[in-house]
Amino acid sequence: PSQTTTRHALSTVTEKHGQMDRKFKFQKLAFKPKQVGIDIRGGYCSNVRKSSQAYKLGVRTGWRIVNIDGERVPKEDKEIASLIRSCIDADDEFPITFRLPPKSTCAGYRCGDVVEALDSTGRQWNKCLIIDIVDEKFSIVYLHNAVRSKKFQAMLRRVNKRDDDDDDDGDWGEDDDELEGKVKPSKGKK
């Protein structure tokens, strides 16, 4: 079957954050029953491979997976990967709905950027994905363990170009969950 691409805002949801109302947009895309080409951490796209169907459909880092083939996504990345795998195995097109990242920016950073954040000990930098910016405070998800945290800009540093830059190779490391393969278990803290 030919690929039907559904690209429209399904809805806009307003949430209250302190004194500010936030509107989130959602996008539904139809995928062929083959490799999707995204890695996930904490339910967010942490990497989108440039040659993948997800990239060709416009999916980018920072997009949150909220619905797969009519089902709300589970909380665990392994379960999300399993749900996508079952859709691929059904050998029919299937929709995935994403919540697009807010357009917030601060100090040159934006939602969807992969950066490094200083851990709570102040001694180690770990790769993370910026998932939101509110009142100069960054919500992040660590790529090595999917833990969410909040940081100030002084605790972040840029590690690579954004995924919309032409020369980015999209390689985020071996610890990412690949939706077209088996999910690797998260490593415990050392």
Q: Mind explaining what this structure looks like?
A:
There is one protein chain. The longest helix is centred in the middle third of the chain and has 13 residues, at 77-89. This protein has a 5-stranded antiparallel sheet, covered by helices on one side. It contains 2 helices and 15 strands. The protein is mainly β and 190 residues long. The protein is globular. It is 9% helix and 41% strand. β12 and β13 (148-152) form a beta hairpin.
Task: Provide a short characterization of the protein structure.
By secondary structure, the chain is mainly beta.
Please describe the topology of this protein:
Blueprint: E1 9-17, E2 20-31, E3 38-41, E4 44-48, H1 53-56, E5 64-68, E6 71-72, H2 77-89, E7 94-99, E8 105-106, E9 109-110, E10 114-118, E11 125-134, E12 137-142, E13 148-152, E14 156-158, E15 177-178
Antiparallel strand pairs: 1-2, 2-7, 3-4, 3-15, 5-6, 5-7, 8-9, 10-11, 10-14, 11-12, 12-13
